[in-house]
Design brief:
This protein has 10 helices and 12 strands. With 359 residues, it is α+β, with helices and mostly antiparallel strands. Among the domains are: 191 residues, Alpha-Beta Plaits, CATH 3.30.70; 56 residues.
Length: 359
């Protein structure tokens, strides 16, 4: 895998800010948010003053603390460069505290740092700052080649700058930004030997491995307990079904429901059960009808209706003196009538209340 890097020759840098503008425009950064910052530094005493330019930008560390602490995977490594996925950033700010150079910042709730123009690099092009630098102080390419060129340049500078050195060769596993310094790193505001924060080192060496081990152990124990519980449930399932069936059968046999009380939600008492049985016997013998039985009477049709004759026009027929209703005169002079004929001619009596109840 090719490891990419950038190099900055501080002997050639003129502090023109062209790289700052190109980076801001090319990456469409909002106002007040820059990936690159350049400051002028003056040191010494009059009349012996020495000036230089200080670059502040991401160093793309091989052992990047920001990548280690990022909980969402926003920061990651790609061929030696520290890439950024803005859509994953939660704005937690862990990277701003973990970075030994204090480079990452938050802008609009998202991390803001150099992304090495990853979209251009993946298309085979150079970052915006490299394309724009008028003095060719910034270069981009394979790290091994850039490191060899930087060492050769430092060897040539030792005659004029005895403290010249290559910064980033071994710091934090090797930086992705190599700098040709003309003096000690402290002169350019850089730490001589940057270290990851102690809590982060403790997290990597002790807490994180223990946490991973405990998580794995808990997952294994949970799986074993699930298998045991599942087997126990399967073995008890037939007995549970059988117990439920027995309980349902016992409930049905101990609570008989009569037709008269089928719609009732409560259990019938002894007296109500006896009355219901007596009524069922009467219904079976035909002595009475069920309460819910309604006798349907046919409605009179149009042809069945006969016109009624006014009462005044009805004339009684004269009795036949020779008919069966003729009274018989006995020798004693009394008049008698046949009782059977009287009963036959007597009008029908309406049914009594007792008969209605039996029906």
């Amino acid at each position: 895998m090719t490891r990419y890097a950038m190099s900055i020759d501080m002997e050639r840098c003129i502090g023109c800010q062209a790289c700052v503008v190109a980076c801001k425009v090319g990456n469409e950064r909002p106002l007040g948010s820059n990936y690159i910052e350049i400051h002028e530094s003056v040191r010494g005493q009059l009349p012996n003053l020495v000036g230089s330019f200080v670059h502040r930008r991401c160093f793309h560390c091989a052992e990047a603390a920001c990548v280690m602490v990022c909980p969402t995977g926003t920061l990651s490594k790609w061929n030696g460069l520290t890439a950024v996925s803005m859509d994953k950033c939660s704005g937690c700010g862990y990277c701003t505290d973990a970075c030994p150079y204090k480079i990452p910042a938050l802008a609009d709730g998202r991390v803001s740092k150099c992304v090495a123009c990853l979209d251009l690099v993946q298309d085979g092009k150079e970052p915006w700052c490299v394309q724009t630098c008028p003095s060719q102080a910034i270069k981009f390419g394979e790290r091994d080649k850039l490191l060899a060129e930087a060492k050769a340049k430092v060897a040539a500078l030792h005659a004029r700058y005895p403290s010249a050195q290559v910064y980033g060769e071994a710091q934090l596993g090797g930086l992705g930004l190599l700098m040709i310094l003309l003096d000690a790193p402290a002169v350019f505001g850089l730490p001589e030997n940057p270290q990851t924060p102690a809590p982060l080192s403790l997290w990597q060496s002790a807490v994180q491995p223990v946490g991973i081990g405990l998580s794995a152990l808990s997952a294994v124990v949970t799986g074993i307990l699930f298998v045991i519980a599942r087997r126990q449930h399967v073995s008890e399932k037939p007995a549970l079904h059988k117990a439920v069936e027995v309980a349902e059968k016992a409930t049905v046999t101990t609570q008989p429901v009569t037709p008269a009380l089928a719609g009732s939600a409560r259990t019938a008492g002894p007296e109500e059960t006896k009355q219901a049985q007596t009524r069922e016997q009467k219904i079976a013998s035909g002595a009475t009808r069920p309460r819910n039985e309604v006798r349907a009477e046919p409605l009179p049709g149009k042809d069945d209706v006969k016109p009624q004759t006014p009462a005044a026009s009805v004339q009684p027929e004269p009795a036949d003196p020779t008919g069966p209703d003729k009274p018989v005169i006995t020798p004693s002079g009394k008049t008698t009538v046949d009782k059977d004929e009287v009963k036959a001619q007597a009008p029908a009596q309406p049914p009594s209340e007792k008969d209605k109840g039996d029906r």
